From TrEMBL, chain A:
Protein species of origin: Roseibium aggregatum
Major location category of this protein: membrane
Domain of life assignment: Bacteria
GO cellular component: ATP-binding cassette (ABC) transporter complex, substrate-binding subunit-containing; maltose transport complex
GO molecular function term, any single one: ATP binding
TM helices/strands, residue ranges: none
Alphabetical keyword list: ATP-binding, Nucleotide-binding, Transport
A Pfam short name: TOBE_2
Protein name: ABC transporter ATP-binding protein
Recorded family membership: Belongs to the ABC transporter superfamily.
Subcellular location as annotated: Cell inner membrane
Domain (ABC transporter) ranges: 4-234
TrEMBL record, chain B:
Location(s) in or outside the cell: Cell membrane
TM segment ranges: 12-33, 72-96, 108-131, 143-163, 184-209, 240-261
Pfam families: BPD_transp_1
Superkingdom to which the source organism belongs: Bacteria
Membrane topology: Multi-pass membrane protein
Name used for this protein in its record: Carbohydrate ABC transporter permease
Automatic annotation (TrEMBL), chain C:
Name the record gives this protein: Sugar ABC transporter permease
Main location: membrane
Localization of this protein: Cell membrane
Pfam families on file: BPD_transp_1
Length: 332, 276, 290
């Protein structure tokens, strides 16, 4: 079981309030992603749940029991660190077995669990190597192995993929998702990468300056962002924001429209502009268009558009997918 | 980046580098060679380089005449003793500064370093008088205390720079894995810190072994380590070159060996981590 | 970064080191300051009395002080110049690829591990002795009159001995710094058309500037306190020709038993060392933040 609730949790480092009062419910078996720009407090929040930091005030409950004062080792959680934090002087086998050894489990059971974890993670051939002799992806798997053998109530991941190269990152993303499918254990995953958040999460928690901006499923956040921050953070390329007279026409302080919701034409449309840069990806084309009286707009069209730098184009927003924000950034 | 270097150039550099290296090492080499000569050969003119009757008589004589072994043991006890005592005090301090840094940790570190900058003559008289009045003059214990204190800042700093390189996440991982403080220290911290502690130990034994201000001023005979014992060869025995060389070779040999092992750590330790 | 529990433990673990060093610094230093205002000679116990700044006046106006100050500066300056220039040259040499790099490196750093009394005696007797020293033999072999180094050039001889001891230190640190230089930077500058001299001046030297500063400051701290080499070779003589401040204070306190005067000299030495220390601490402090 891994139901975690945070009630009125705050955290201050000296004078600096990193997390002003925050409430959050994480259901058993959920894959929750904390996402936000660096310095938003997402890692601190994870470390509060882990018990590596004391909360300044508030209550953390794990499976209904108050765990606020429980030391990290006895919260029944396992954590995968950004640097993997493998013990360099121990073999892979000993690294994975370490939490079991700490729990004074008998040797046969330790061996059984290490073997099965190694099998799941394709580490069987590397059990007697030291972490220093492994590749980045293999180290990552050892760190995960060390977490799963404990059969924890929940897994905590602190930006686990940020040290891997792009191709490996996609692979590991899939592996972690598969792991979640097969274990069905609660996972809390911290990242600054909204793509990771969108692809892996059951539930995304968007954090900004220590506050929760919005909680919801990936598509909820995509379709109906609660405010301008979430709208700009989720989705790639980023949403276009237009303020001033054009926004006034829609009765808003600012309007937002995603690049994929702008229709492109070479003959007619709402706004006329000149293409500054055209990025041809094959499957998509991204255009950066200068329109009079607005910030440059990003436009996404499917396939090969056959449009180049300097061309004049017409752009029309899809009214159905127009987001309207008031002066404080809230969605209207 | 391995660059291709022409063999001619490499040969030239090899010749120059070896010539310079041997020139710098020559006084030591000469001392070692002379220690195997008879007194007459030691001052022969022209000097004999390799072709002389090699003899061990100087070593036997230095040993039998001057209680060499006592001074050697004094050096061992004083340098190892002060280093171990220093480590015992410094390990907890460095550990807590590296892993639980507070607002004033940096100030404390800098202040510790500043004590090392205190020139010894500034406190020579009080220490001398305090030692005289408490009976510590010319005792091994007295020197162990002084050398512990003068090297403590270096020990703390060296350990601090090593401990700081142990990523905090690893200790946190151990905590998450269910290790208590004791298990964290035994299974994770100690194995990772041992190389750093070993280099600190080595470098400080070297520094303490060669320390030649306090050892000269606070000892007379009984507790004199090799630094002070060799100084007594100043005159007139110093003119017995072969015996002087034998005593010197014995005094520097153990440290030369230790020193060669610790050359990498030397840079770091003596620059307080400013150059790695 | 941590929990309240570990913070209490941390304070507890650090206190022995702090208290000991605090005691080591404050107790003797305040005693020295106290003595420096007394007329106090060990040969005349029970006659101590407060005499204000008289000790300082005597010490600072003593011709021996000026000689010692000049010798101290010459000794520190001379050794620094030799070791920095020689160390840079040696570091550049040892950084080149050649056969037997490891062995030559060991040969070069060896003098640093020789205890000061041994190196002073070996140089004094076996090299600089005007009758049986190797230099004398060498001079005779080429038909020159042997030179009595320690009698006629005592300070220069001591500078040579001390420089020999510290050259390895400078070399080792500068070599370490040199080896941490990013090769791509050098290659980039080569592509930009810099020749060897340009590369040395614009890339290598700036990269080593920090290490050179560290060498200067750390050596200065140690060189201000050179003692054993003087004690063993010249006893500060002839006259005051090779007496530095450290040796002068030692002679005044433990040879003439003038505790008051010696203490005043000790405090002067502390002040001089502090001037250097301030710079050194700044350097190292900056490094702490990095």
């Amino acid at each position: 079981m891994g139901k975690i609730s945070l009630k009125n949790v705050t955290k201050a480092f000296g004078e600096a309030m990193v997390i002003p009062s925050l409430d959050l419910e994480i259901e058993d078996g959920e894959f929750v992603v904390f996402v936000g720009p660096s310095g938003c407090g997402k890692s601190t929040l994870l470390r509060l749940i882990a018990g590596l930091e004391d909360v300044t005030s508030g209550v953390i409950e794990i499976d209904g029991r108050d765990a606020t004062e429980v030391p990290p080792a006895r919260r029944g959680l396992a954590m995968v660190f950004q640097s993997y934090a493998l013990y360099p002087h121990m073999s892979v086998r000993k690294n994975i077995a370490f939490p079991l050894k700490m729990a004074k489990m008998d040797a046969a059971e330790q061996e059984r669990r290490v073997t099965s974890a190694a099998k799941i993670l394709n580490l069987t051939d590397y059990l007697d190597r030291r972490p220093g002799q492994l590749s980045g992806g293999q180290r990552q798997r050892v760190a995960i192995g060390r977490a799963i053998v404990r059969e924890p109530a929940a897994f905590l991941f602190d930006e686990p993929l940020s040290n891997l190269d792009a191709a490996l990152r996609v692979n590991m993303r899939l592996e972690i998702s598969e792991l979640h499918q097969s274990l069905a254990t609660t996972m809390i995953y911290v990242t600054h990468d909204q793509v990771e958040a969108m692809t892996m999460a059951d539930k995304i928690v968007v954090l900004h300056a220590g506050r929760i901006e919005q909680v919801g499923s990936p598509l909820d956040l995509y379709r109906s962002p609660a405010n301008r921050f979430v709208a700009g953070f989720i989705g790639s390329p980023k949403m276009n924001f237009i303020s001033g007279a054009e926004a006034g026409k829609h009765g808003a302080h600012t309007i937002g429209i995603r690049p994929e919701h702008l229709a492109l034409s070479t003959t007619e449309g709402a706004w006329q502009g000149k293409v500054a840069v055209a990025e041809h990806l094959g499957s998509d084309t991204f255009l950066y268009v200068n329109v009079n009286g607005m910030d440059p707009l990003t436009v996404r069209t499917q396939g090969e558009a056959g449009i180049h730098h300097g061309d004049t184009v017409y752009i029309s927003p899809d009214a159905e997918h127009l987001h309207r924000f008031d002066a404080s950034g809230k969605t209207i | 980046m391995a660059r291709r270097v022409s063999n001619r150039r490499k040969t030239l550099v090899t010749i120059v580098a070896w010539a310079v290296g041997i020139a710098i090492f020559f006084p030591i080499l000469w001392t070692i060679l002379t220690s195997f000569k008879t007194e007459a050969e030691a001052i022969a003119s022209p000097p004999k380089f390799l072709f002389f009757d090699w003899t061990l008589e100087n070593y036997a004589e230095v040993n039998s005449r001057s209680n060499y072994f006592l001074h050697f043991m004094n050096s061992v006890i004083i340098s190892v003793g002060s280093t171990l005592l220093g480590l015992a005090i410094a390990i907890p301090a460095a550990w807590s500064m590296a892993f639980v840094p507070g607002k004033r940790t940096k100030d404390v570190l800098m202040w510790m370093l500043s004590t090392k900058m205190l020139p010894p003559v500034g406190v020579l008289i009080p220490i001398y008088l305090l030692f005289r009045d408490s009976g510590l003059l010319d005792t091994r214990l007295g020197l162990v205390i002084v050398l512990t204190l003068i090297n403590l800042p270096i020990i703390v700093w060296m350990l601090f720079t090593y401990f700081k390189e142990i990523p905090g996440e690893i200790l946190e991982a151990a905590r998450m894995d269910g290790a208590g403080l004791w298990e964290e220290v035994v299974h994770v911290l100690t194995p990772m810190a041992v190389p750093g502690i070993a280099s600190t130990l080595l470098l400080n034994i070297i520094l303490a072994w060669n320390e030649a201000f306090w050892t000269l001023n606070l000892t007379a005979a009984k507790a004199a380590p090799l630094t002070a014992f060799i100084a007594s060869y100043s005159s007139p025995e110093g003119l017995f070159y072969a015996k002087l060389s034998a005593a010197s070779t014995l005094a520097i040999a153990p440290i030369l060996v230790l020193g060669w092992f610790s050359q990498k750590q030397l840079v770091r330790g003596l620059t307080f981590g400013a150059v790695k | 970064m941590a929990t309240a529990h570990s913070r209490v433990a941390a304070r507890f673990m650090i206190s022995p080191a702090v208290l000991l060093l605090l005691g080591w610094m404050i107790v003797p230093l305040s005693m020295t300051i106290y003595f420096s205002f007394l007329s106090y000679n060990l040969l005349m116990p029970g006659m101590e009395e407060f005499i204000g700044f008289t000790n300082y006046r005597f010490f600072l106006t003593d011709p021996a002080f000026f000689a010692a100050l000049a010798n101290t500066l010459l000794l520190v300056g001379g050794v620094l110049v030799i070791t920095i220039v020689g160390g840079t040259a040696l570091a550049l040499l040892l950084d080149q690829p050649f056969w037997g790099q490891g062995i030559v490196r060991i040969l070069v750093i060896a003098p640093f591990f020789v205890m000061p009394t041994v190196s002073a005696l070996v140089w004094k007797n076996m090299f600089m002795n005007p009758v049986n020293g190797l230099f004398a033999h060498l001079a005779k072999a080429i038909g020159l009159e042997p030179f009595d180094f320690l009698a006629h050039a005592p300070l220069a001889s001591i500078i040579l001995i001390v420089a020999w001891q510290w050259l390895p230190f400078a070399t080792l640190i500068l070599l370490t710094a040199l080896q941490s230089l990013d090769q791509e930077q050098l290659e980039a500058s080569e592509m930009d058309g810099a020749n060897f001299g340009n590369r040395f001046i614009y890339i290598v030297l700036p990269h080593m500037a920090r290490a050179i500063t560290v060498v200067v400051l750390i050596q200065t701290i140690f060189l201000l306190s050179v003692f054993a080499e003087i004690l063993v070779t010249t006893n500060g003589g002839p006259g005051y020709a090779s007496t530095n401040i450290t040796y002068l204070v030692y002679a005044q306190s433990l040879l003439q038993f003038d505790v008051g005067g010696g203490s005043a000299g000790g405090i002067v030495a502390v002040i001089l060392a502090n001037i250097v220390a301030v710079f050194l601490m700044r350097m190292i402090g900056k490094n702490l933040e990095a």
